[in-house]
Amino acid sequence: MNVEQNKKKMNQTIIYPIFGTIVTAFLLTFIIESLSRVSLYQAFLFLGQEPLLFFLNFSVILITLSISLFTVRRKFFFLLIAVVWIILGIVNRVVQCFRLTPISAMDFYQVKEAIISLPNYMNTIGLVFIALVLVGVLVLIGVLWKKIKKSKRIMIAPFTVLLTSILLFGILFFTATRDNILQKGFDNLRDAYLEYGFAYCFSNSIFERGIEKPKDYSSKRMAEVLKQIEEGKDKLYTGAPAKVQNPNIIMVQLESFFDVSYLKNYTFSENPVPNFSKLKEDYPSGFLKVPVYGAGTVNTEFEVITGMSMKYFGTGEYPYRTVLRSKTCDSVPYNLDKIGYHSMVVHNNAATFYNRNDVFPRLGFDNFDSAEYMNSLEYNKIGWAKDSVLTGEILKALTSDTNRDFIYTITVQSHGIYPSDKDVNSRIKVIPDSKNLAYPDNLYKSLSDYTNSIEYYVNQLKETDQFIGALTEKLSEFKEPTVVVFYGDHLPPLSLEQKDISLDRHSTEYAIWSNFQMEKTRYDLPAYQLSAYVLNRLGMEDGLLTKFHQRCFSDTDYEKELKLLQYDMLYGKKYVFDKKNPDKKKDMTMGVIPPEIKDITKEGDSLLISGNGFTECSMVVADGKRCKTEFVSDSLLKIPYRQLDGKQIYVEQLANKRSVLGKSRAFLYQ
């Protein structure tokens, strides 16, 4: 074999594969970052300002491409992996047009739900187009599989690229972590993807899941923790408990709610939250440390309901989408159930959002009153239900039974993303202190657009604050002792940096209102201690984690033992419960007033369905077939007439016009 042939062989088996893979990985990294940031310029800035992080992402992609070089069909798999990365980048861009958070591995747990919900976001033409694209992609893969010929197996290039990419990743990761350029956990996925890069963040979400088994986890260690809890004394709240027994407890989780007086460099024509400000002055209150920023409501929700900390779970993980899809979890509702409480959720949004209708029965709730069971809903300009409806729904829930109630209320009106167009009718005006203020130019075209978004947000806050005032006014007249805990779930999705606000960006505030006397205090705490603190103030200590927070929160090994408890309860052998699961999934009902058919009469060409509990999400099912249903009122539905003598008719409540949340008892038409 002559020199030219050796050179050609070296080029084909070593040089071209190595450099071709490196160049492709670089281009893919740049293209994906451009898609993620919606800007070629921003991708160049990422490369220029954060080269270490850019090449960290490059090394992740390079590792995946290098694997294809080991196969005899390396050209096919190389192309396939490259296309997958491009598709992920495109899907991420499209997904963020509909929601705040970028895609992560968590989304692939929800493929079925995503397919079901597609008709809610796209018309028939769009759905057909997607179907054709998917079929086209599958056909193309089949054609390429046949057309692209096998190659001789090579060894030097694959090992060179793989080892180099792994070594590069290790060096860059170590350097970025050591210099605090890269954080281990992400409090906000949207910001993390922009700060650290798509490939790294997405890959990280694949491998980090659940709670890592503590090194000292054992039956003996858990017995020690239990003994410490039982022998401990109250430390979380040491004042005098309220002089009431088992009051109604209402938690109100306020979407993206915070006092904008903490926002620097902007002036507001009036305080948008006067009622909440008054509560902070007159009642127990404080800062609340939350696990997320700008999005991720359900993780704050999870901490408050369970008393568990999100810091021990995987990066970007939502327990609602992982462990709670199949397991029950110790919680405030389960613990209050033991002393006769009836636990309900009131939420003016879709029941299926974040799988809440599947998760809440595993958290011990007896009833879920979602938007599909509410009437008189009004919506803001970006489609979120207004919070004013919640006052009536909470009062309805309180009077629906004779038990004491635990009512977990979730607002939604001030949910982002906020429009950037000017609304001349806004009551509250926002004025930047300078025309040269910095703003998130990767998301907004100008300071004026950013100011308009803030202005829209504070006017939504105003209306949510009016709901707070209306609820407390009504409950002041309520005869049963009742306490209401108002708190923000996270700061608004306005891409606020720490320098932009005068409070920690992981902090919101809470205030505890009651129609009975409670000692006024100012106390700051994390979200996973909030319920234990409230119960402590009421002289209640039901629940293992509740007792643990109340009695052990200042202990030296508090955080280590909290992780032990969480692991044991969710992933371990449940030593603290004698190796048994004490919490069975509840047979949760939907709606405070479920649909009921009382009579059916014929009127012209229609059948009138009389009853109660009907809403615009009600669908009549006659003889096993859904009928075109006209909503007339909460007591009347109308369907086209057809012969149904001797047939059974019932009413379904539908989420997103498809998913059945519940149905009425069958009515025999005669």
Automatic annotation (TrEMBL):
GO terms for molecular function: transferase activity. The chain crosses the membrane at residues 14-32, 52-70, 77-101, 121-144, 156-176. Keywords: Cell membrane, Membrane, Transferase, Transmembrane, Transmembrane helix. It is found in: Cell membrane. It is a multi-pass membrane protein. Residues 247-520 form the Sulfatase N-terminal domain. GO terms for cellular component: plasma membrane. Pathway: Cell wall biogenesis; lipoteichoic acid biosynthesis. Pfam families: Sulfatase (PF00884). Its main location: membrane. This is Phosphoglycerol transferase. It comes from Anaerocolumna chitinilytica.
